Amino acid sequence: MTDGAMTDTQDRQVITSVCNGTGILELNRPKVLNSLNLEMVEIIHRALDAWARDDSVTQVLIYSNNPKGFCAGGDVRAAREQSLAGNKAGVDEFFRKEYALNDAIDKFPKPFIALMDGVVMGGGTGISAFGSHRVVTEKTFVSMPEMLIGFITDVGMTYFFQRMVGSRGKASRALALYLATTAYRMKAADLLWTGYATHQIASDDADAFREAVIESGYAAAVEKYANTNPDTAPLASQIETIEEVFAQDSWARVVTALEQCADKAFVAGVNDTLKHASPTSLVAAAEIFRANAQVDSLADALDNEYRVGEYLRGRPDFDEGVRCVLVDKDDEPQFQPDTISEVQEGEIRELLR
Question: What is the pLDDT of residue 5?
Fold first, then answer.
């Protein structure tokens, strides 16, 4: 690739180009908020492999051409359709390659700038969180709603969430489990406070910021456009309660701590989400966060996520949860089992390394 503007055909789901030494990844599946499929994962990974070896490429910038959002996650609706059609191999291939991409971004040897304006959910975190520079706007929110579809927080977030350190100054396993099980929407102030984001800009400046990154480099773009006076993070006022409830080594103990919590408004808010969640997913979340607090690398964490994810995809809750949330949208999931006490916790623990 040369140091001029080079662009693939415009109908590709990820448009790749190189301009002024910047490898550009433009997410281009707007009708589904850039929900990731196998083609997108493969395009991004191939581009990163090439740019890592190309000395003329000095940095990478990923962004969405949809003003509503960056990426709404993996295309789990398509995964469900494949599953129902008996194509387990196709579903497994997608998740293997998606996780390999997450690891590749983490190991990418050059600056990787993720510009996230709007929605970032599920798989969208996996193509942004491991970048060296993570830029959000006042319109950005990050959420992990996998419990509602009978799955788990994945794409490396069981590793990253436990280790991110922002303006708060320290990481928190309890906060990580809270984010993973309640679908809490972190907005800009929370994202900076927790460490998910490194900088905030105004949404109206997103195009200009992007051009400045390409023309002048990331540091100059941040100096010109970054908000240096962020709002107070809502999570900061809740962190003591979150630590009290979610700093447990099993989901059953989280439930007990929640029952004993004196902050009834907090309890009501959490329970409002948990009543729609898969009991198996909640138990699995506590187990995998406990295990991945001890692993040595993102790759090891992703291996655990893959094994537990494969287990969950083989159960009825995944198909049922996707049906309920994304297909029929009836808000009446019929999860099996439907209580925490019936979940086979030991089966999940045996999968973890």
Answer: 43
- The tokens of 230 are what? 């962020």
Residue 285 half-sphere exposure, CB side, CA atoms within 13 Å? 39
| Res 9: pLDDT | 54
Q: Please tell me the distance from the alpha carbon of residue 118 to that of residue 69, in angstroms, as a whole number.
A: 4
Helix (H) or strand (E) run with residue 215 in it: helix 206-216
Mean pLDDT in each 10-residue stretch from start to end of the chain (353 residues)?
Answer: 46 95 98 97 99 98 96 94 92 98 99 98 98 98 98 98 96 98 98 98 98 98 94 97 98 98 98 97 98 98 98 96 94 94 96 96
Rounded to the nearest angstrom, the gap between the alpha carbon of residue 182 and the centroid of all alpha carbons in its chain is 14
Residues 6+ apart with CB under 8 A from 49: 104
Return d(Cα 46, Cα 69) in angstroms, integer: 24
Structure tokens at 206: 């997103």
First vs last Cα of the chain: how many Å apart? 41
CB 123 within 8 A of CB 151: no
Q: Which of 17, 210, 12, 221 is nearest to 115 (CA)?
A: 210
- Per DSSP, 31 falls in state G
Q: Are 232 and 256 in contact (CB under 8 A)?
A: no
Q: What pLDDT shows up at residue 10?
A: 64
Amino acid residing at 237: S
Cis peptide bond N-terminal to 337, omega within 30: yes
Q: Are 119 and 69 in contact (CB under 8 A)?
A: yes
Rounded distance, CA 165 to CA 296, Å?
18
Name, in order, each residue with C-beta under 8 angstroms of 40's C-beta and a sequence gap of 6 or more.
13, 14, 27, 29, 34
- In whole angstroms, how far apart are CA 61 and each of 17, 51, 94, 204, 211? 10, 12, 23, 18, 10
Q: Residue 6: which of 23, 21, 18 has the closest Cα?
A: 18
Extract the runs of DSSP E, i.e. beta strands, from 32-189.
Answer: 59-64, 69-71, 112-116, 119-121, 133-136, 141-143, 186-187
Reading the block at residue 275, the tokens are 């009543």
**Pair of tokens at residue 136:** 């959000």
The whole-angstrom separation of Cα 154 and Cα 190 is 20
